[in-house]
From TrEMBL:
Pfam families for this protein: SRR1
Entry-linked PANTHER family: SRR1-LIKE PROTEIN
Species this protein is from: Scopus umbretta (Hammerkop)
Domain SRR1-like span(s) in chain numbering: 6-128
Descriptive protein name: SRR1L protein
Name of the gene encoding the protein in the UniProt record: Srrd
GO CC terms in record: cytoplasm; nucleus
Family: Belongs to the SRR1 family.
Superkingdom field: Eukaryota
Length: 175
């Protein structure tokens, strides 16, 4: 069992009331919108990221871009295989290069679809990154670790921190 104080949460859409309720449950709310760029900091970490945009997964992989860090992660979220199947390979490699580069180092198991709600959570998988599989990737995969920018991305599904998306923190104009 993981103590609630070791569970960190963030959603830029949390209302003040939701944030207060989660805090009363003893859960730790991350203070800033990290845009998915959260490091595992050497600890085994489960990321529950259901229905998130591709950029969030890509940012998370970038932030933890080493075999040692990735092997400590488990992601419950949209299927990476599904992302690969639905995107043109040139778009995947240009806009979501960390997803593209780690596909061969990923183990993925789809969660079963609920027969009553076939269109909900129908693309959810559990992903993990076995150290041995990551070590089998070519060394060049690990050489390039530039932060993603998404300048040419047409379908960016992310709430950027510079968009003032952290609704729990009033801006200077609101104070």
């Amino acid at each position: 069992q993981v103590p609630p104080g070791r569970c960190s949460l963030f959603d830029p859409a949390f209302s003040a009331q939701e944030a207060a309720a989660l805090g009363q449950l003893g859960l730790r709310l991350l203070p800033d919108n990290e845009e998915g760029k959260h490091g595992v900091e050497g600890s085994a970490t489960l990321f529950y990221m259901v229905h998130c945009g591709k950029a969030l997964y890509n940012n998370l992989l970038w932030r933890n871009w080493s075999p040692a860090a990735l092997s400590k992660m488990v992601i419950i979220g949209n299927s990476f295989q599904g992302i690969e199947e639905r995107l043109l390979s040139r778009i995947l490699e240009r806009d979501y290069s960390y997803i593209a580069k780690v596909l061969k180092g990923t183990e993925e198991v789809a969660l079963p679809a609920h027969p009553r709600y076939l269109d909900t959570f129908n693309d959810t998988s559990v992903h993990w990154f076995p150290l041995q599989k990551l070590k089998e990737l070519s060394p060049e995969v690990w050489d390039f670790a530039e932060e993603p920018t998404y300048q040419d991305c047409d379908d960016l599904e992310i709430i950027r921190k510079e968009d003032g998306a952290d609704r729990r923190s009033p801006t200077a104009a609101e104070s």
